Amino acid sequence: MPVIRVNASTPIPRDKQVELKQAFGQAIAAVPGKSEQWLMCQFEENVPTFFAGDDSEPAAYIEVSVFARGEVPTTAWEQLTEQITPVVSRTLGIDPTRIYINYSASANFGWNGMNF
User: Fold this and answer.
1) Nearest-angstrom CA–CA distance, 66 and 61
2) Which fold has domain 3-115?
3) Which of 14, 45, 100, 101 could disulfide-link 62, Cβ–Cβ 3.0 to 4.6 Å?
4) Where are the domains of the chain?
């Protein structure tokens, strides 16, 4: 049950959403037991974002949430950062220094009217 949410201060046209979704589908495999089969991607564009007190340049905040009964290895998060950052930078024209990524794992995830 991975979910990747992108909040960007820039527009995210449909073709860019598809490009990001495809890249995220490959990247999520860095987390043990995760694949594109269960990946949900959400995109919110034109989000007013100040970074370091400045909104004159594009910025993005990305959240990655996964269902995990145990701890996710730090190396998995590091690999995701290494894969997500350049694709978001290239696709949306956002400098990597203006991209934050937040990771979380939860043992409580609901789907289809029940919890895992």
Assistant:
1) 17
2) Macrophage Migration Inhibitory Factor (3.30.429)
3) 101
4) 3-115
